[in-house]
Write a structure and sequence with these properties.
This protein has a domain of 134 residues: Mago nashi (Mago nashi protein). The strands form 2 sheets. The chain has a 7-stranded mixed β-sheet. A two-stranded antiparallel sheet has the order 1-2. The chain has 196 residues and is of the alpha+beta class. Strand 5 and strand 6 form a beta hairpin.
Amino acid sequence: MRTLLVLALLTGCGGSPATDPAPELVAEPDDEAPTESPDDDLAPVERVADPLIDADDFLFQWARSGGPAFIDEVSLRADGQLIWVRAPTVGGRPHALETRATPEEVTAVRQALARARYFALDPSYREPDVMDGSQLILRVRAGGQTHRVSCDNRFPDEVRAIRSAVEALLTPAREAALSAAPEAAPEDFDPSLQVE
């Protein structure tokens, strides 16, 4: 049975509302009576694991360069290990910082990747009419899959959303710690994270 709530507006003399309008409940028969399904005694469906969210082998790597300022490489693992390497392209010395991301920060990056359907992104996005500018390389290993995305002056919305999640890791406190960190060695940079 379904219950239908009927609210009647009662009017008194001269069209003025009556003093006590009250809702009225009316029962209506259902169009279809519930029937038992042969599947009623099956176990509930479990959520299918998404390696971007759940895989223990998760490794996210991100490299950006933009003009003459610097080159950044960021590596984030499922356990929160965060490595940030920065090399100024003009003057200065490169530095490497190894620190920990909070579980919430790791989750935010992993969720951004999942929402972007990272493994379905094209491997390359290029703006053909720009010779120099901003480059971004992303590589993810999760659930036995590895996918690399290269952006050369062209950044689809999905990549912009991922970039925002990563930039949230690069807090002023971590940037200050990076500046005070030991000098980076050449092997701290991953040559496979360079724009081709």
